[in-house]
Amino acid sequence: MPLLFQYGSNTNAARLNDKARLAGAAEDLGRAETVDEYDLAFNVWSGGNGCAASDLIPVPGTGRHSWGVIYELPAERILGRNCLAGKTMEEIEGRRYEPKLVRVRNAAGEEVEATTFLVKTRDRSTGLCTSAAYVTHIVDGLRAHNIPEEYVQRMINTAIQTNRGLGPAAEDQTRLIEALREPGAPSTARTSRSDL
Predict the structure, then answer these.
(1) 137: which of 5, 12, 80, 83 fits an S-S bond (Cβ 3.0–4.6 Å)?
(2) Stronger pLDDT, 135 or 182, i.e. the higher one
(3) Is the pTM of the predicted complex or chain greater than 0.85?
């Protein structure tokens, strides 16, 4: 079966396999890191999440790689529409994302090819606020898969930087995102988030 690499809120396997998404069709194969150099960004508006959602931006020559989770699922659950149970990844990601094959290194150190979804260049934007609820899904997914904490902190820094200077609502979200820094620490973002 084909492999899928997820780096954003769908690193949270429970979210991805929820009945409103893939309805249990994805088998979690564990953590993986991009072979090529990518940085995470929050640069596209997601109506379903009500905030800026994640993307991977190529950053050749930086030595930076992005972490995520690889899943195995039937090919018909990646592309296409109108599944009998749940959705396809194409439906979940929406019209602003496009599929792309990437090479990732799995937990065993093997390089494998997987489909991921990146934001279309024309749909990338700045000045968008991300939410603590959305970032919490990413943090929970990364930590559940034992992604290095240094990367988790880098992702939190990116979310905070994304919201900088965007007004009082963004500042409120930033305070909640900041509370995610400590693994296992209770935070408003964890206890009041909604599964958008």
Answers:
(1) 12
(2) 135
(3) yes
